[in-house]
Amino acid sequence: MQILQKRSIAERGRSPRETPSLEQQSGQLLGYLDALFQRLVLPRQPVEPALDCSREEIRALILLGSSGRMIMSDFAEALGVPLSTATHTVDRLVNKVLVVRNRRDEDRRVVEVEMSDHGRKLQAAFRSKRQGVARSWLAALSPGEREIFLELMGKITLRAKPVPERTAD
Question: What pTM, to 2 d.p., does this model score?
Answer without folding.
Answer: 0.61
